[in-house]
Write a structure and sequence with these properties.
Number of helices: 2
Order of helices and strands: HHEEEEEEEEEEEE
Helix content: 25-40%
Strand content: 25-35%
Length: 200
């Protein structure tokens, strides 16, 4: 009789109290809520990262300069940001596709303009001498096109700032650039940090 009573008392002691049940429920609810918040946060971060990548690839491509055709404006190894657009004006630095590569040059003339370059490397657009503060040494460079040259419809005429070595629209190999091959305008240098700033 005493043994049965003792077992009954032990069973009564093992039954959880209302506060213990509530505490256990609260713990389970917290686990469920925490898991839901974590999943929601991860999904949000993935969406933001995907959107950032889409913007970067579509509207703000990041490019690394390779070569010396744009010195002293841009140097080998510089990292720049381009802006995808449709309007390109004389004097702007642009990136474009050429033979599965991306080249960077400066817009000299647009559709319908007449370009002429003399033996000293002076550039004339529509019979007016182009002022080029970005060029340190003028040169006729690699030029095998017939001058004066009229830029065809839907194309732009580009030159590198380092005129002596740049292969650009003066060469029939590259010629004038179709607007469909343009990546965008080079707006900003992000590396090296010491030269960070707008590209002019």
């Amino acid at each position: 009789m005493g043994r049965k009573k003792k077992e009954k008392e032990e069973k009564v002691l093992e039954t959880p109290t209302l506060s213990q049940i509530e505490a256990e429920l609260e713990k389970e609810n917290h686990k469920h809520t925490f898991g839901r918040v974590m999943r929601s946060t991860i999904y949000t971060l993935l969406i933001v990262a995907a959107a950032a990548m889409l913007v970067a690839v579509t509207f703000l491509p990041v490019l690394q300069i390779s070569g010396t055709s744009m010195t002293e404006t841009l140097w080998n190894g510089d990292i720049v940001v381009a802006l995808n657009g449709s309007d390109y004006n004389t004097g702007e630095v642009v990136a474009f596709y050429y033979n599965n590569n991306i080249l960077v040059k400066r817009v000299i003339a647009v559709s319908g303009d007449w370009v002429d370059i003399d033996k000293d490397g002076n550039v004339y657009v529509n019979n007016e001498l182009l002022e080029e503060p970005y060029v340190t040494e003028k040169s006729l460079g690699i030029c095998d096109i017939t001058l004066p040259y009229q830029v065809p419809e839907g194309r732009i005429f580009v030159l590198g700032d380092h005129r002596e070595t740049s292969v650009d629209s003066r060469s029939s190999t590259i010629g004038s650039i179709s607007e469909e091959f343009l990546v965008g305008k080079i707006l900003f240098r992000v590396w090296p940090l010491t030269d960070m700033g707008m590209i002019r």
